[in-house]
Amino acid sequence: MGRHERPAVDDPGQEAVRLDARVYGMVQGVGFRYWTMGTAEELGLSGEVRNLDDGSVSVVAEGPGPQVRKLLDWLNSDRTPGRVERVDDSLTQPSGSFRGFRVR
After folding, report:
1. Which of 19, 4, 14, 13 has the alpha carbon at shortest distance from 93?
2. CB–CB of 103/50 below 8 Å?
3. Local confidence band at 3 (pLDDT 50, 70, 90 cut-offs)
C-alpha cells in the first residue's frame, strides 16, 4: 500500500489502526529508531521499531487513524534522520498487544 492509499478497514476518523512499515535507505546507525520512537510517543501511539538484518528498519504502530497517518507522513518526509529511500507500508486492524512504544 502506498502512502496515499486508504486502509482496507473502516476508519471513520478516530478508529484505531495498525501500521506495519518497512523503511529502506540509510536508516541504521543514525538515531532513526529513537527519533521514530519519540515521534510515535508524541503522537500517542503504541508499538515498536527495530533494525532488520538487511539494513532496513521495521516500524509497527497502533493508535487513532489520523495519528498513525501523521507518523507515516513523517516516515516519508525529509525530517527523518539518515536518508529514507522507500517506505513499504500497510494499514490494518490493530492487535492491541502493545503498551507504550519501544525500541528493539
Report:
1. 19
2. yes
3. very low
24: left (phi over 0), alpha (psi -120 to 50) or beta: beta
Give dist(CA 63, CA 44) in Å, integer: 7
Active centre residues (catalytic): 33, 51
Pick the CATH number of 19-82 from 3.40.630.30, 2.30.29.30, 3.50.50.60, 3.30.70.100: 3.30.70.100
pLDDT in tens, 22-56: 999 999 999 999 999 999 999 999 999 999 999 99
